[in-house]
Amino acid sequence: MHKLIEIKPIPDYQIWIRFEDGSEGIVDLSHLKGKGVFAAWGKTIAFEQAYIDSESGALAWSKNLDIDPLNLYLKINKISFYELTLKEVH
């Protein structure tokens, strides 16, 4: 499990994140703005209201608007899911 422990929204729909294993970095989410459920950013939900959901551990803005932490982990570590599974097996 790749547990998010700290987040900080920064300008232009980017977010700094830190994981329990010490991995950290900035993820640019601007490509999601205005698309699907993310259209809520700037309308009913402010991007800056991001939090770590206590039940799922996801980066969330509401119960219906979240991003799985594994996707964020892969993004900041610049690895694929396949590479991660190989790393965890060895």
CATH C-level class: Alpha Beta
Radius of gyration: 13 Å
Shape: elongated
pLDDT average, as an integer? 92
Number of strands: 6
Give the count of structural domains: 1
Q: What is the CATH-assigned architecture?
A: 2-Layer Sandwich
Largest beta-sheet characterization: 3 strands, antiparallel
Instruction: Kindly estimate the percentage of residues that lie in beta strands according to DSSP.
Output: 25-35%
Which superfamily, in CATH terms, is the homologous superfamily?
Answer: NE0471-like N-terminal domain
* Percent in helix: 10-25%
Q: How far do the termini sit from each other?
A: 16 Å
Q: Structural class of the helix and strand makeup? A: alpha+beta
Strand arrangement, major sheet: 1-2-3
- The residue ranges in which pLDDT falls below 50 over 5 or more consecutive positions are none
Helix-strand sequence: EEEEEEHH
Q: What descriptive keywords fit this protein?
A:
3-stranded antiparallel sheet; 2 helices; 6 strands; 20% helix; NE0471 N-terminal domain-like; 90 residues; elongated; alpha+beta
What does the secondary structure layout of this molecule look like, with pairings?
Blueprint: E1 4-10, E2 14-19, E3 24-28, E4 51-52, E5 59-62, E6 65-67, H1 69-77, H2 81-89
Describe the protein's architecture and organization.
The protein has 90 residues and is α+β, with helices and mostly antiparallel strands. It has a single domain, classed as NE0471 N-terminal domain-like. The chain has helices spanning 69-77, 81-89, and strands spanning 4-10, 14-19, 24-28, 51-52, 59-62, 65-67. The strands form 2 sheets. The protein has a 3-stranded antiparallel beta sheet with strand order 1-2-3, with helices on one face. Strands 4-5-6 form a 3-stranded antiparallel beta sheet. A hairpin with a 3-residue loop joins strand 1 (4-10) and strand 2 (14-19).
